[in-house]
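Progress note, sequence design subtask.
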């Protein structure tokens, strides 16, 4: 089984670049008094602040079992974006609003040759896309596409400005594109016009007013937890570029993860968090010498879509928050014990909806952000909300209607940006019983060699389950 695929910086892979200046749209300008239809929620507004420091871009890659025809792919992408109403985006950062105004769009996918190792080419392009900014404001296309030609098949990649959508919405969009490409042109594509202006979190706070008030009351407890957590490295003034590497866990090993989590009475995500803590513990060994900060903290993305909005097929958008778990991870602790202790934390957070604390804290950070100079912003969160790594899980099988006619099973990889919160983020994606892991990391704060060791240890804990 292939363990870890490294993204290589050396040149040598044949690349065919489409003309840049592509991904252009009709000239759309918003007047100074226009009120755009969509309103950004708290997490979306936070992402816009983070992308002032470094591009906050996510990438999805799916493999299609058909030969690549660049012209055909371009047409299918343009037609789908236009009919879905996902063109003509205008962003007003100052007012926290956006609107898809529709119209024609020109997409020019970057075309690359797979060479001897398509995975390596994919990793290199993913890493490049993670660090390539979109326009900061105004009218722009928030999507970029690339394709890796592997002869009888190809990999379709989609990089997107993360504030505009969560991973579930992008997975549904890629499902439509896989279906569109598989048609021979004689059949019309199935219509899909999702809602593009979802509700913000205000409705969620009002719906759970008592829980929201309790979350406010417990903010001092969260602050105390943070003061017990060992800080991850954050070097202000250095290039915050993201590196990337990936790994694949086959059906047998991932099946053991699912069975074990059920046997232990925990979730798969609890098991991932515990395995990540064990993998990180040697990297944060200096916490043993700290007087107060002896715990290691990790975070997990929580999708709140089901709390107040329609499915990813019906509503295009982003509804994210996170939960935080911490543990001293003492020497000798084993995965079953650590997983159960992490489960106690996550179960309490879910029961009392304490993930609302994160959203409330984001509101406080937004206020504090205004008074922070450019030199303090990059490490502000690392200092006051210490997180060593985050994990974001996405089950594609739960989003796709079934096996795609033109898509190979078990080939879906994601990359998620680190931002200023954590130096490492793991994107865990499952499709057809296969687990694909994407490790994004801030190269200035954690080296590639260190991430490879963490990834190998994480995988070892998973693959030794029976």
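Output:
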């Amino acid at each position: 089984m292939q363990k870890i695929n490294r993204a290589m910086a050396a040149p040598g892979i044949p690349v065919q670049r489409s003309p840049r200046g592509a991904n252009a749209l009709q000239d759309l300008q918003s007047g100074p008094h226009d009120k755009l239809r969509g309103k950004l929620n708290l997490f979306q507004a936070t992402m816009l602040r983070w992308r002032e420091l470094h591009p906050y871009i996510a990438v999805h890659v799916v493999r299609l079992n058909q030969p690549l025809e660049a012209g055909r792919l371009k047409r299918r992408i343009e037609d789908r974006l236009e009919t879905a109403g996902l063109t003509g985006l205008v962003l007003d950062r100052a007012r926290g609003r956006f609107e898809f105004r529709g119209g024609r769009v020109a997409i020019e996918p970057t075309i690359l040759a797979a060479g001897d190792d398509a995975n390596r080419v994919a990793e290199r392009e993913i890493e490049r896309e993670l660090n390539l900014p979109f326009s900061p404001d105004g009218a722009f296309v928030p999507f970029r596409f690339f394709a890796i030609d592997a002869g009888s098949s190809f990999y379709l990649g989609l990089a997107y400005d993360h504030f505009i959508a969560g991973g579930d919405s992008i997975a549904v969009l890629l499902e439509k594109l896989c279906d569109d490409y598989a048609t021979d042109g004689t059949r019309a594509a199935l219509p899909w016009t999702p809602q593009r202006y979802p509700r913000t979190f205000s409705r969620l706070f009002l719906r759970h007013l008592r829980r929201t008030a309790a979350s406010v009351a417990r903010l001092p407890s969260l602050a105390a937890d943070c003061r017990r957590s060992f800080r991850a490295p954050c070097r202000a003034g250095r290039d915050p570029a993201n590196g990337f590497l990936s790994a694949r866990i086959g059906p047998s090993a991932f099946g053991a993860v699912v069975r074990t989590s059920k046997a232990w009475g925990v979730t798969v995500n609890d098991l991932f968090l515990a395995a990540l803590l064990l993998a990180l513990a040697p990297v944060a060994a200096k916490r043993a010498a700290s007087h107060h900060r002896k715990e290691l903290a990790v975070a997990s993305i929580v999708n709140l879509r089901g709390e107040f909005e329609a499915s990813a097929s019906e509503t295009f958008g982003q509804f994210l928050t996170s939960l935080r778990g911490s543990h001293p991870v003492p020497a000798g602790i084993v995965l079953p014990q650590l997983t159960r202790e992490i489960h106690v934390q996550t179960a309490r957070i879910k029961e009392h909806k304490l993930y609302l604390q994160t959203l409330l804290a984001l509101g406080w950070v937004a206020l504090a952000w205004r008074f922070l100079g450019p030199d303090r912003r990059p490490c502000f969160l690392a200092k006051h909300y210490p997180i060593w790594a985050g994990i974001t899980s996405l089950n594609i099988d739960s989003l796709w209607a079934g096996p795609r006619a033109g898509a190979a099973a078990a080939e879906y990889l994601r990359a998620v940006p680190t931002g200023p919160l954590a130096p490492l983020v793991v994107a865990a994606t499952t499709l057809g019983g296969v687990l694909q892991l994407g490790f994004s990391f801030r190269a200035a704060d954690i080296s590639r060699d260190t991430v490879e060791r963490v990834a190998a240890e994480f995988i070892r804990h998973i693959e030794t389950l029976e």
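The chain has two domains: 4-182, 222-463. Work on this subtask will continue into the next period as scheduled.
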